[in-house]
Amino acid sequence: MNKIINNGVFEDEIELDFGDGQLEKYLVIATYNMEDKYYLAVISQKDDEIVILEYGVNENNDVIIKNIEDDSEYEKAENMLNEILNCDELAFE
Fold first, then answer.
1. Domain presence at residue 60
2. Distance (Å, rounded) from C-alpha 23 to C-alpha 12?
3. pLDDT of res. 5
4. Suppose 63 and one of 5, 9, 25, 73 were both cysteines; which one would form an S-S bond, judging by CB atoms 3.0 to 4.6 Å apart?
5. Is 92 contained in some domain?
6. Consecutive sets of 10 residues in the chain, 93 residues long: mean pLDDT of each?
């Protein structure tokens, strides 16, 4: 899943499609960087599921959002989010 947000600006609420053709609303709970990559943590307004995604900017200065495919990278991003939010554990995807 790749998502472009025009003008390079995240809204507090975004709609994402994870490949099933259905847009779902998410609230942005954190953005952060780790090991030269940028991450976006969102929570579903439908079922409170938290998802962490990688994001960057393309040559047109549009923000690109994509899934984190590597399990170890996702775990590191999850641990960093827990530190940022000062939580022991969150309900992640």
1. yes
2. 16
3. 47
4. 5
5. no
6. 44 79 88 91 89 92 90 95 73 50
pLDDT of residue 92: 52
Note the pTM of the prediction, 2 decimals.
0.76
- The pLDDT value recorded for residue 89 is 57
Residues 22, 1: Cα–Cα separation, whole Å: 12
Residue 71 sits in which domain range? 2-85
Answer whether residue 37 is part of any domain: yes
User: Is 74 within the bounds of a domain?
Assistant: yes
Other CB atoms closer than 10 Å to residue 74's CB: what's the count?
Answer: 19
- In sequence order, what E strands does the chain have? 2-5, 13-16, 24-34, 37-44, 50-57, 63-66
Q: How many structural domains are present in the chain?
A: 1
Task: Show Cβ contacts of residue 2 under 8 Å, excluding neighbours closer than 6 positions.
Answer: 64, 65, 66
Closest by Cα among 92, 76, 1, 71 to 32:
76
